[in-house]
Amino acid sequence: MRILAAMSGGVDSAVAAARAVEAGHDVVGVHLALSRAGGTLRTGSRGCCTIEDAMDARRAADRLGIPFYVWDFSERFRDDVIDDFVAEYRAGRTPNPCMRCNEKIKFAALLERAIELGFDAVCTGHYATLVDGPDGRELHRASDEAKDQSYVLGVLTAEQLAHTYFPLGSTPSKALVRAEAAARGLTVAQKPDSHDICFIPDGDTRGWLADRVGAQAGAIVDRSGAVVGSHEGAHAYTVGQRRGLKLGVPASDGKPRFVLEVRPVSNTVVVGPKEALATAEIAGERYTWAGRAPASDAFDCDVQIRAHAEPVPARAAFVGGALTVTPAVPFDGVAPGQTAVLYDGTRVIGQFTIDRTVSAVPVTA
């Protein structure tokens, strides 16, 4: 096959590309430039798309003896990831920019161009497994549970999965990948993993958002609507947050309070007891299927609401056009804007963006 290897400059994508070459594929490496202003992205090991990362990717490609290119996707990244991130926070939701990057950039924009250029598939260093089932290609969890990235890949569609290649999915551990990189003479063998949001240079998400959303003072209220404090910008708060609330009125039971809801229209933050974070139901209208769609409008599944959360057994059903999920055990601290990924065992069924949540604790409690 003709393989386009997306090379971030990290050890995983370098080893994935090496395995594609070793498997006999015709491989070309590409690094995605996601910002035209280098200073707007993290430096060193904390990002995944800096000038330093591009140089690391080029050295790896040279070591593998494959052609290498840098493609400018900065405009698409700004429109589909950064602007979406700001819009979601402005609407009082908590987005996952890495999820959106996978959906809109790595497996939409990149894959579209790859197909146009005659490539058969895009190869990445994600830890997930592809299985050719009776109804087409299926996305499954990686063999290494600690590194499994099937959650952030839950946005992939059947068509995208048909042109995707994940060489690391069956590798038992990240340590083995690093050892393999060292044995292959790849200089990124011990490079630290990237983390945090790549387009926020100093890690100050609150300050970065304040510059773009605007900081407007407002009230912090309890579940009854009584004002218990004030804030300098609702965008700085997310469901489940405890620190930094600075409440002027203590709770009657003396227990700490947590953010339960952010209401952008009224610029209000709602707080309450920890037990009120228990969520009995989630729903969303923006959903996709990773392969075949469920055969029924109601089905049992496991649901994961964060990248490293434990999956929870649940019942999913379509109610009024929305995919609604009722967990067997309440979720803890779910925020609108998060992504819920549905599983059948190890297989990813699909995903949806959470638009609505229902607390398991009545307001009168």
From TrEMBL:
**Limits of the tRNA-specific 2-thiouridylase MnmA-like C-terminal domain:** 281-350
Annotated ATP binding lies at A6, M7, S8, G9, G10, V11, D12, S13, L32, G125
Instruction: Identify which residues the record assigns to the active site.
Output: C101, C198
Q: Please list where the region (Interaction with tRNA) is annotated.
A: 147-149
Where's the tRNA-specific 2-thiouridylase MnmA-like central domain?
208-272
Site residues by UniProt (Interaction with tRNA): H126, Q338
Disulfide bridges in this chain = C101-C198
Q: Does the keyword Nucleotide-binding apply?
A: yes
Q: What keywords appear on the UniProt entry? A: ATP-binding, Cytoplasm, Disulfide bond, Nucleotide-binding, RNA-binding, Transferase, tRNA processing, tRNA-binding
Per UniProt, subcellular location reads as: Cytoplasm
Swiss-Prot/TrEMBL GO biological process terms: tRNA wobble position uridine thiolation
Which transformation does this protein catalyse, written as a reaction?
S-sulfanyl-L-cysteinyl-[protein] + uridine(34) in tRNA + AH2 + ATP = 2-thiouridine(34) in tRNA + L-cysteinyl-[protein] + A + AMP + diphosphate + H(+)
- What SUPFAM superfamilies does this protein map onto? Adenine nucleotide alpha hydrolases-like
Where does it primarily localize? Answer: cytoplasm
PANTHER family, per the entry: MITOCHONDRIAL TRNA-SPECIFIC 2-THIOURIDYLASE 1 (PTHR11933:SF5), TRNA 5-METHYLAMINOMETHYL-2-THIOURIDYLATE -METHYLTRANSFERASE (PTHR11933)
In its UniProt entry, what is this protein called? tRNA-specific 2-thiouridylase MnmA
Q: Which organism is it from?
A: Microbacterium aurum
Q: Point out the gene that encodes the protein.
A: mnmA
